[in-house]
Amino acid sequence: MYDAxxxxxxxxxxxxxLDGLRGSEYSRLDAQGHVYLDYTGGGLYAECQIRxxxxxxxxxxxxxxxxxxxxxxxMGELVEETRREVLRYFNASADEYLAIFTQNATGALKLLGxxxxxxxxAAYALTADNHNxxxxxxxxxxxxxxxxxYVPVVDPELRVDGxxxxxxxxxxxGATHKLFAYxxxxxxxxxxxxLDWIADAQAQGWDVLLDAASxxxxxxxxxxxxxxxxxxxxxxxxxxxPTGIGCLLARKAAxxxxxxxxxxxxxxxxxxxxTQNHYLxxxxxxxxxxTVNYLSIPGVGIGLxxxxxxxxxxxxxxVMSLTGWLLEQMTALRHxxxxxxxxxxxxxxxxxxxxxxxxxxxxxxxxxxxxYDAEKMASAERISLRAGCHCNPGAREAxxxxxxxDLAPCFLNxxxxxxxxxxxxxxxxxxxxxxxxxGLATNFADVAKYLAFAQKFVDCRVQDLPLASVAVG
Length: 473
Fold this sequence. Notes:
Blueprint: H1 2-8, H2 16-25, H3 27-31, E1 35-36, H4 47-58, H5 70-89, E2 97-102, H6 105-115, E3 123-127, H7 132-135, H8 137-143, E4 147-151, E5 153-154, E6 159-160, H9 162-170, E7 178-183, H10 196-203, E8 207-211, E9 230-234, H11 236-239, E10 246-251, H12 252-255, E11 268-272, E12 277-280, H13 297-310, H14 312-331, E13 342-344, E14 356-361, H15 371-380, E15 383-384, E16 386-388, H16 393-399, H17 404-407, H18 419-425, E17 433-437, H19 444-455
Parallel strand pairs: 1-15, 3-4, 3-7, 7-8, 8-9
Antiparallel strand pairs: 2-10, 5-6, 9-10, 11-12, 13-14, 14-17, 16-17
Helix pairs in contact: 4-13, 5-13, 6-8, 14-19
């Protein structure tokens, strides 16, 4: 099987170095028998990252950087050095961009949403394929009187409707402020949406928010070639450690439009109670509320250096080789009566897509197998996947053919309904799908084991699956 794979994907042989790293930096996977296929949920850290960070912290005394004493200055320099490394890694000019540290990508998006100058006459447009943290910005927009427009995605590949996008970008010519948001790579389907949209939207007066959280772990992202106004990132998605650190990369010209709705410690030059006034600190500091996670931030620099030592293009080659092979193998799976074993939501080839594959298994009679049951069965074999809608309701609704009429009754309750009540309202329709995603440390044995797991559904019937006896190991 491996020889046939290499014949089909000879470029995979150039990524042999990653097999060495699998043994030296991720040995815990094989030692514990894990098959980790949830890289869109979170990357895995290398052992050297932990060692290097521990050595850095153990070799000096570091204090809160909001001071001028020796320990504060030492820490402050490490934070600023990491900030420079972030800009350099994404090839972003310091004359054009600022790197603002946040808790995660969601924190970066909330920061933008609460500060963007929405109001009557303003507009927020976004693709239906977006993470909930991007969807959530619509609440800031609505409360301030701005219009909100979704651009639909089209089944089966779940790509954006090009005509609808063109109409949306051409709309609201007189709007005071316009923000357009979309993901570089869908966290649901793996679809990679064109980066050309950035310049197209900007030419029509839109500020552009690019959600890059799912894109950057295995793709080169060069901010000297594309110039979105705002970019959100979670670093643990790229290299696993540290968690709790994200970033908003913002063009300085666009950042001037933002208006902070409050101030806090760390964001001001000074404030006064007597006159109830304050001055925000210029630059990134005015957006970093309180004290940044200063002891973890140097770990970001260590992680970026580690990825650079490997090469993002090498990682991309491995991810796409394994993804292409998996797509071919899984789409070929058939029950003996000819029915497909599974349905993939999104592209079934590697054109303009990443290493995230979304699917549901079906029994021989075409009955969909609950994704949570499939996840539990995989866990029993120590295969880590992810089931659900993955915080992307728009892509889920398009993939599973939910309509407005299906969902409207779920929101008739003025307070809220439980998840069980939601399932009752949708009359037994599945609520999600099973997602696998490959990454830096994935090897061929991992995807081969997943294929063997998938083959167990051939000729099965839902009622015969041993779900009651499945024990998660």
